[in-house]
Design a protein that fits this description.
This protein is mainly α. The chain contains 8 helices and no strands. The protein is 83% helix and 0% strand.
Length: 305
């Protein structure tokens, strides 16, 4: 907003000017929010790189227990390929984050199998659910929840009702009796954890947006105050320039009258002393006339600008 534009503002279009400023502030708020969320996503992606590296190496470490190298290396590598492929080919989409949710759930299933149903491996999915909070997207909990329920339901059924012969093929899901009651309690408690983590994701996003909106409103208010003060200052300057312009214009006529009177008076006397006084008055009057002309010219230029 330049000085010329503010100079031509009047009281009727000042409101329009403030409305325009609010609109621009809203656009700036959305841009700032977008940049903020992009920055947070980049930082979250960096953290996830370390998390996935740890999850993969943890699977390798578990392979020593029951010689499950093909699972630790194979499934772990496929998980990494799935995540980074989605992230590479769909750079402008959040789809890779949902792939991440599925990948973290598969890592849990991998660990459970590698440790022959060790119950403690089930808790790794709670760690995964908590990690997903950093993206501030509650919907990422949905694929994780669905896959856990499907995995637990299918394998619990196979272990208890299909492959329940101790001398036959085994399904490594749980080392404890995983009956229907245990299954329901397990799933409900897991769903509560996923729900709470989803709520915190939603809360953190809302908090970020509200905080940014508050900062934007305060910044907008300060800009409006500054613009109003600047407008008032320029209006006062315009009024002052108008007064100076009018006053200098009013002075031009009396000054010219004095100069004319001096010339007429000089023609009416031969007194050298009196002519000297007239000449001195004439010179001083010309100086005043020059000063009035300068003031008039400068005030006219300010009025034009």
């Amino acid at each position: 907003m330049d000085v010329h534009y503010l100079n031509v503002l009047n009281k009727s279009n000042l409101n329009q000017f403030l409305i325009t400023m609010k609109t621009k502030a809203s656009l700036n708020e959305r841009d700032y929010l977008h940049n903020f969320m992009s920055t947070m996503t980049q930082k979250s992606d960096t953290i996830i790189n370390y998390v996935l590296a740890f999850y993969f190496l943890f699977g390798i470490a578990l392979a020593f227990k029951y010689d499950t190298w093909e699972i630790g290396v194979g499934v772990g590598a496929l998980n990494l390929i799935a995540y980074y492929s989605a992230k590479f080919f769909l750079k402008k989409s959040k789809f890779y984050q949902y792939v991440l949710s599925v990948v973290l759930a598969i890592f849990m299933a991998q660990y459970i199998y590698q440790m022959h149903g060790l119950f403690e491996m089930h808790f790794t999915v709670f760690i995964a659910s908590t990690i997903l909070i950093i993206y501030q997207n509650w919907k990422l909990q949905i694929p994780l929840t669905l896959l856990v329920v499907l995995h637990h339901g299918a394998l619990a059924y196979l272990q208890n009702f299909v492959y329940n012969d101790a001398n036959g093929p085994q399904i490594y899901f749980s080392q404890v009796n995983f009956d229907i009651e245990t299954f329901i309690i397990h799933v409900v408690l897991a769903a509560v954890v996923f729900f709470m983590n989803g709520y915190w994701s939603y809360y953190f996003k809302e908090h970020s947006e509200n905080h940014i909106s508050k900062i934007s409103d305060e910044y907008e208010l300060e800009n409006i105050k500054l613009a109003s003060a600047k407008y008032s200052s320029l209006s006062a300057n315009n009024e002052f320039n108008s007064f100076i312009y009018k006053t200098s214009q009013d002075l031009k006529s009396p000054v010219h009258s004095v100069l004319t009177l001096i010339e007429v008076s000089k023609g009416q006397t031969d007194n050298e002393k009196l002519l000297g006084y007239f000449e001195m008055i004439k010179e001083n009057t010309k100086k005043i006339d020059g000063l009035v002309n300068d003031i008039h010219g400068k005030s006219a230029n300010h009025m034009a600008n």
